[in-house]
């Protein structure tokens, strides 16, 4: 018993401390070093942060280079699958584009109003500028859903910067290096986004579920009954982590997909992201804006002039809106006309088909009569031997044949 | 002479191949995730480190394995040191197993590997969840452990083939 315990201790000691000729460090040293690094990385020291940024910069670039073959393979797989659904996607995109065109008009007005109201409430205007960023590392880890983009503190990216795919939210920055940043995707389990569900106007939190769906949490049990398929979830702006009004995804009520839970299908496919937009927000003091605008114009502008200018701009927007609505009206009229034409064509078709059906019925009856006539005609025909018969062609003869000559035969 | 030099470079590259493969795999996360199979994932570095440290391969430096762990943490976005600790613990486990084994057996190695992977994934999960408050799906870890276990036997075949070439 004692010897087996000794053997165990010897084996363990040897495993921890013995290093072969090639090894520079014993494993025990490396274990302690690892634990030391874990503790250091949990402490938010400035030196460690800079060191981490340096390591991240080098490692992300190296990872990008090493991942080239895999990315090539990945894109080939995607392109093949994409090709098969190309036409379907094209039609869907076209419809979406039409819808977006009409939405952009109203959003222009809202933006203008928003800006005006902000100017009234605050002493600053936050102007956002979206910069294009390339995804350099996207490993789609099963545990953590994050991507690395090629923009960092050099490009004014900060922790919390919102990241978009087109107009849809995909995540926010959680780690900033000098020329790279890590973005936590909405699909990550650690991602929580305050949202508003339209048109029901219900406030909730969307949490990542590790795939292309998000779970809706923190809502009353009775609320889900109000949800419709295709209800839209967009950021509510609560907590000021995300900007308000950014579309995230659509509510899905299909039980096969959701397993009875409330889920949102994200608009963006996070596995297919190649480029994203980072929204850099710059706060400008209104006074300074006014000063610069004054300098530019080289004239003293009175408040009333500024108001007139704003009204003129508003008028311009309304005119543009009107033109667009008119265009849309005309388009709709053309569509109605073409639909009416289609309806009349269909009606004509229906009438001709009805005629054909009637003719077919008549032909069918005639055929039946001829067949029965061949079989039972002799029973109904008036002849020397059949004095009770009828003359061929008469109504009685026809009836007699159709009843297979039973009454008279 | 030139021919000899080329041969020398090639044999050096060949002998350092496992460690190069380890660095490529941590930088690239070689795990077929782009196939988009639900939950499917396996930990290739675990297999690689376990096999070559078990065989006491002379070019498999522990310090380089430790560095690979740091790189893996940076790429995946985990707190620095987690993977290094896991990789070093694999080295310790294999070293212990080598010391107590008189007659090596593939099946025994395989099941010992399962035990080690279960233990390491549990340690990882515990540290990330308790100390760093990460939300993680336990199912992903279980499936990852299962596939890593299954894939071990497949990769061992290739690695043995490689070792045979390296010994020749």
Brief sketch in words of this structure:
Chain A has helices spanning 2-17, 27-42, 46-66, 68-84, 86-121, 255-258, 286-297, 303-380, 395-402; strands at 124-137, 146-149, 162-165, 168-176, 181-185, 192-198, 202-208, 213-217, 232-235, 247-252, 263-266, 275-285.
CATH topology of one domain in chain A: Thrombin, subunit H
Helical residue percent band of chain B: over 70%
Mean pLDDT of chain B: 84
DSSP strand content of chain B: under 5%
* Biggest sheet features of chain A: 6 strands, antiparallel, barrel
Most residues in contact, chain pair and counts: A-B, 56 and 55 residues
Number of helices of chain A: 9
Shape assignment of chain A: elongated
Helix content of chain A: 40-55%
Order of helices and strands of chain A: HHHHHEEEEEEEEEEHEEHHH
Number of strands of chain B: 0
**Domains counted in the coordinates of chain B: how many?**
1
Oligomer: heterodimer
Main beta sheet of chain B? none
First-last Cα distance of chain B: 21 Å
Structure characterization notes:
The complex is a heterodimer of chains A (409) and B (168). Chain A is α+β, with helices and mostly antiparallel strands and 409 residues long. Chain A is 51% helix and 20% strand. Among the domains of chain A are: 125-301, Thrombin, subunit H (Beta Barrel), CATH 2.40.10; 302-409. Chain A is built from nine helices and twelve strands. In chain A, a hairpin with a 2-residue loop joins strand 3 (162-165) and strand 4 (168-176). In chain A, helix 5 packs antiparallel against helix 8 (303-380) and helix 8 packs across helix 9. Chain A is elongated. The mean pLDDT of chain A is 79. With 168 residues, chain B is mainly α. Chain B has one domain (44-167). Helix content of chain B is 76%, strand content 0%. Chain B has seven helices and no strands. At the A-B interface, helix 1, helix 2, helix 3 and helix 4 of A face helix 2, helix 4, helix 5 and helix 7 of B.
């Amino acid at each position: 018993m004692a010897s087996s315990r000794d053997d165990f201790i010897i084996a363990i000691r040897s495993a921890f401390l013995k290093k072969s000729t090639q090894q520079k460090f014993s494993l025990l040293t490396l274990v302690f070093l690892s634990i030391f690094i874990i503790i250091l990385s949990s402490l938010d020291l400035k030196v460690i942060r800079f060191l981490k940024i340096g390591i991240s910069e080098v490692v992300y670039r190296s990872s990008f280079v090493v991942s080239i073959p895999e990315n090539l393979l990945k894109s080939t797989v995607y392109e093949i699958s994409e090709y098969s659904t190309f036409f379907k996607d094209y039609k869907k995109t076209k419809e979406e584009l039409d819808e977006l065109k009409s939405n952009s008009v109203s959003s222009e007005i809202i933006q203008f109003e928003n800006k005006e109201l902000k100017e009234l409430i605050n002493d600053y205007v936050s102007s956002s500028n979206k910069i294009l960023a390339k995804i350099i590392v996207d490993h789609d880890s099963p545990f953590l859903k994050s991507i690395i983009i090629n923009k960092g503190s050099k490009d004014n990216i900060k922790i919390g910067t919102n990241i978009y795919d087109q107009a849809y939210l995909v995540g926010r920055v959680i780690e900033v290096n000098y020329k790279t940043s890590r973005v936590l995707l909405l699909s990550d389990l650690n991602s929580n986004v305050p949202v508003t569900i339209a048109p029901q106007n219900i406030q909730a939190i969307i949490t990542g579920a590790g795939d292309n769906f998000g779970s809706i949490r923190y809502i009353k049990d009775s609320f889900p009954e109000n949800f419709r398929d295709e209800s839209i979830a967009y950021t509510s702006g609560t907590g000021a982590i995300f900007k308000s009004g950014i579309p995230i995804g659509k509510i899905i009520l299909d039980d096969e997909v959701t397993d009875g839970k409330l889920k949102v299908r994200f608009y963006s496919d996070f596995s297919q992201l190649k480029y994203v937009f980072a929204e850099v927000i710059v706060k400008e003091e209104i006074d300074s804006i006014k000063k610069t605008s004054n300098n530019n114009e080289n004239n003293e502008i009175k408040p009333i002039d500024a108001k007139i200018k704003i009204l003129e701009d508003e008028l311009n927007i309304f005119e543009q809106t009107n033109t667009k609505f008119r265009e849309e009206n005309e388009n709709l009229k053309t569509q109605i006309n073409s639909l009416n034409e289609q309806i009349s064509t269909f009606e004509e078709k229906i009438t001709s088909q009805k005629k054909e059906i009637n003719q077919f019925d008549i032909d069918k009856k005639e055929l039946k009569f001829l067949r029965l006539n061949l079989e039972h005609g002799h029973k109904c025909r008036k002849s020397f031997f059949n004095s009770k018969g009828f003359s061929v062609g008469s109504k009685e003869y026809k009836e007699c044949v159709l009843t297979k000559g039973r009454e008279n035969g | 002479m030139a021919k000899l030099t080329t041969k020398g470079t090639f044999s050096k590259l060949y002998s350092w191949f496992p460690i190069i493969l380890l660095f490529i795999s941590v930088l690239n996360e070689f795990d077929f995730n782009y196939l988009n199979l639900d939950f499917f994932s396996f930990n290739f570095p675990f297999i690689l480190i376990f096999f070559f440290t078990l065989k006491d391969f002379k070019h498999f430096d522990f310090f380089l394995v430790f560095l690979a762990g740091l790189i893996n943490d940076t790429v995946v976005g985990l707190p620095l040191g987690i993977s290094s600790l896991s990789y070093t613990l694999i080295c310790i486990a294999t070293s212990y197993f080598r010391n107590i084994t008189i007659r090596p057996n593939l099946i025994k190695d395989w099941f010992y590997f399962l035990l080690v992977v279960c233990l390491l994934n549990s340690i990882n999960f515990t540290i990330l969840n308790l100390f760093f408050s990460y939300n993680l799906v336990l199912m992903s870890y279980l499936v990852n452990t299962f596939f890593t276990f299954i894939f071990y036997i497949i990769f061992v075949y290739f690695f043995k083939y490689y070792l045979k070439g390296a010994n020749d």
